[in-house]
Amino acid sequence: MHFSKFTDYALRVCLYLGVHDGRVVPISEIARAHNLSQNNLMKVVNMLVEGSYLKSTRGRSGGVQLARPADEIRVGDVARYMEGDANMVDCSTCILLGSCGLVGALAEAKILFYQTLNRNSIADAIAGHPRTRAILMEADNLPDPISRAS
Fold it and tell me: How confident is the model over 5-30, as pLDDT tens digits?
């Protein structure tokens, strides 16, 4: 299965916020840390807020933070929310539409895929590699990517 960029970005945001737990983080900081477009990240963050994965604070010292502890946010739930409930393949133009034996197998595979991802929380993903936390903690101290290119 292949995730959309929005899902990829959503998981990156959750990991970053999981490491910076308890702190309201500006979206610009997350964009800079991951070298991503702030405009695209805003859309992702808005979706995550709507899905109750993040909470946002407006204003000068505003930003986002996880809506609940990182160990309570399942990776598969975030991915499923961002990907939506679309089928794995587009059957609309297939000559087997309504008569295909793969539909059930693909639906089952999708369910099992998300169940497997749900074995891990955002906290588990952070703890899953010894360098993850350190890299994400240092990422907000990196120089602006534009100045790095100079």
Answer: 999 999 999 999 999 988 999 999 99
Q: How far is CA 59 from the centre of its chain?
A: 24
User: Of 24, 38, 20, which is closest to residue 122 (Cα–Cα)?
Assistant: 20
Q: Provide the b/e sequence for 57-92 (b: ≥16 CB within 10 Å).
A: eeeeeebbbbbeebeebbbbbbbbbbbeeeebeeee
Question: Could you say which of 1.10.10.10, 2.60.40.1180, 1.10.1040.10, 3.30.390.10 is the CATH number of the domain covering 5-149?
Answer: 1.10.10.10
Q: What is the pTM for the complete model shown?
A: 0.87
